[in-house]
Amino acid sequence: MTNEDKEILRKAKKLLENPGLAIKIANIIGKPVEIGMNLLPVKLSAEIGNTTRKALEIALDIAVKTMDKGIYGKSQDVLHKIIVLSTGAAGGFFGAPALIAELPVSTTVMLRSIADIAQSEGEDLNDLKTRLSCLEVFALGGNTGKDDSSETGYFAVRAALSKAVTEAAEFVAVKGIGKESAPALVRFIAQIARRYGVTVSEKLAGQAIPVIGAAGGAVINLIFIDHFQDMARGHFTVRRLEKKYGYDAVKSEYDNL
User: Fold this and answer.
1) Nearest 5°: CA angle at 20, between 38 and 195?
2) Which of 129, 138, 190, 229 lies 20 to 30 Å from 117, alpha-carbon distance?
3) Which tens digits make up the pLDDT trace of 14-46?
4) Do 23 and 145 meet the contact criterion of CB atoms below 8 Å apart?
């Protein structure tokens, strides 16, 4: 691997192994997310798992289909941030009930942004595995400081999802991407939703902290999408280098950094 590509990989690893969303929110608003966790309604907390799964299904069906495939240029990160910022403001203004309604919209916009970043890194969105790799980004939450890196490290997460990605891609190739009731696709989305749900809970908890309101909801949504844009940039940079050097060589260099 060239020194230039080693530096590119180093930057990708820095993005992927950065602190998780809860720490980023605390750094911005000056309050730990645990305060918000205690304020979330019990019913809302119970609904998060089901809501995240449905949000991912909606996003998968809509976001990537709207991409202008084959146009490789700079991703429109700022545009997607502006859209999600406005939905966060609405969610913060109307409170907890609006948060559940807002999540599918935010998730769809973020998946659209992730796909945009993938394409800017040379990925072919007509490839089924590329589309599923876009969804995979939601499982990459970054480190919280409490994580066991052997279970939550970037390559560990990819390895845990690899079988589900392959099975889902094989199904989609035959039946189409909209058949979310298929066992292979359900399993894949469920695995993503379990990991994504943790980050969603942290987002909602941040918005639940008193005096956050509409402005704070917008800021937290901005942190939210910025976080996953970083995950996407790191993820698809690694995949680009893997195409050049092979999976094993890139993983070895990544581990040595």
Assistant:
1) 75
2) 190
3) 999 888 888 887 777 777 777 777 777 677 766
4) yes
| CA–CA gap between residue 189 and residue 202 (Å, rounded) | 20
Of 19-23, 82-86, 168-172, 225-229, highest mean pLDDT:
225-229
**How many domains, the chain?**
1
**Domain of 127, in residue numbers:** 3-256
Q: Is 212 helix (H, G, I), strand (E, B) or coil?
A: coil
> Tokens 């991407």 belong to which residue?
177
Report the DSSP beta bridge partners of residue 143.
Answer: 19
Q: How far apart are CA 186 and CA 117, in angstroms?
A: 25
Task: List, in order, residues 6 or more apart from 232 with CB less than 8 Å away.
Answer: 113, 114, 117, 118, 134, 137
Across 174-210, b (16+ Cβ under 10 Å) vs e yields eeebeebebebbbebbebbbebbbbbbbbbbbbbbbe
Please name the residue ranges forming H helices in 95-212: 96-120, 128-136, 149-152, 154-175, 183-208
Beta bridge partner(s), residue 19: 143
Residue 47 has pLDDT above 60, yes or no: yes
